[in-house]
Amino acid sequence: MSRERMEEYFQATIDADQKIEPKDWMPDAYRKTLIRQISQHAHSEIVGMLPEGNWITRAPNLRRKAALLAKVQDEAGHGLYLYSACETLGVEREELLDQLHSGQAKYSSIFNYPTLTWADIGAIGWLVDGAAIMNQVPLCRCSYGPYARAMVRICKEESFHQRQGYEIMLTLCRGSDEQKAMAQDALNRWWWPALMMFGPNDKESTHSEQSMKWRIKRISNDELRQRFVDMTVPQADFLGIQVPDPDMKWNESTGHYDFGPINWDEFWNVVKGNGPCNRERLKARVQAHEEGSWVREAAMAYAEKRKQRAEERARVA
Ligand SMILES: [Fe+2]
Ligand SMILES: [Fe+2]
User: Fold this and answer.
1) Mean pLDDT, rounded, for 297-305
2) pLDDT tens column, 22-45
3) Shortest CA distance to 173 belongs to which of 236, 245, 246, 244?
């Protein structure tokens, strides 16, 4: 088959809403785009463990501790599904981790902000996992099979994360004045970074159009952001706290909330590595990787031993 015919067949498969699987032919650019996106996503899951892991030992009671511990472990699991999905595209996990550790690969900027109080754990679950769900639900129908299937399970777990966060906020907002003030302060600090999670405005977004055609992406950044605002503002109202945006108001004619301009200088600054915690996060990841090397070596040695034993048994039999 000529290259042109293969490309036609590939696009027709996508247009018919059929999945592309690892052994199918695919254009190099499609493969590269997916490797970039899935690996960035995987990195975000495991770097995302750090700001919250910081509060496991300081959770206010056993129930909160157990829920937070489970949530942080889920994020590690999400990272694993996604690295595995990425490996089906013919890239080694070691290579992906090297890119993260050398600062070459990106991950979601939101995890470069510090978690200053317990209310931040509530705000992260509510807003950050909430924004993640908004972004990720459409990915369950992404054209690449292994990515789409990983997202189905991830999204189910994200919805538990979002609820546990909102429940923390609700408890604080029904508590003392100090607790409510703590919840408001966390909302003030996490609101704008959460809106930035949807990425640049559509007209500035470089990869979007092609990704739409390939059905890797199905809904634009601005539309997802608007959906998130429309869903979240009534939740803040229910809590009795306010989003830190003087321009936020319901627009009767559009049926959506209008909101103020996002500080994109801050966004790009954090993306470029100058957020409040970029260096700290990378350092913690590199250290965890180095300290975990004995576990990987032991697991490899054990797998090798089992393989040899199985071969011996096969020979005897
Ligand atoms: Fe996750
Ligand atoms: Fe999550």
Assistant:
1) 97
2) 999 999 999 999 999 999 999 999
3) 236
Query: Residue 171 C-alpha to ligand 1 middle, in angstroms?
Result: 23
Centre of ligand 2 from the C-alpha of residue 45, in Å: 8
pLDDT at residue 14, as a whole number: 96
* Alpha carbon of 241 to ligand 2 centroid (Å): 23
Per-residue DSSP letters for the chain?
--HHHHHHHHHHHHHTTPPB-TTS---HHHHHHHHHHHHHHHHHHHHTHHHHHTTGGG-SSHHHHHHHHHHHHHHHHHHHHHHHHHHTTT--HHHHHHHHHTT-S---GGGGS---SHHHHHHIIIIIIHHHHHHHGGGGG-SBHHHHHHHHHHHHHHHHHHHHHHHHHHHHHTS-HHHHHHHHHHHHHHHHHHHHTT-S-GGG-SSHHHHHHTTS--S-HHHHHHHHHHHHHHHHHHHT---S-TT-EEETTTTEEE-PPP-HHHHHHIIIIISTTHHHHHHHHHHHHHHTHHHHHHHHHHHHHHHHHHHHHHHH-
Confidence of residue 206 (pLDDT cuts 50, 70, 90): confident
Rounded CA gap, 200 and 264, in Å? 8
Residue 44 CA: which ligand is closest? 1
Tell whether the model's pLDDT for residue 208 goes beyond 90.
no
Which residues, other chains included, contact 270 with Cβ-Cβ below 8 Å and sequence gap of 6+? 109, 112, 278
pLDDT in tens, 52-108: 999 999 999 999 999 999 999 999 999 999 999 999 999 999 999 999 999 999 999
**Cα–ligand 2 centroid distance for 73 (angstroms):** 10
Question: How far apart are the CA of 65 and the centre of ligand 2, in A?
Answer: 16
With cut-offs at 50, 70 and 90, classify the pLDDT of residue 174: very high
pTM confidence score: 0.93
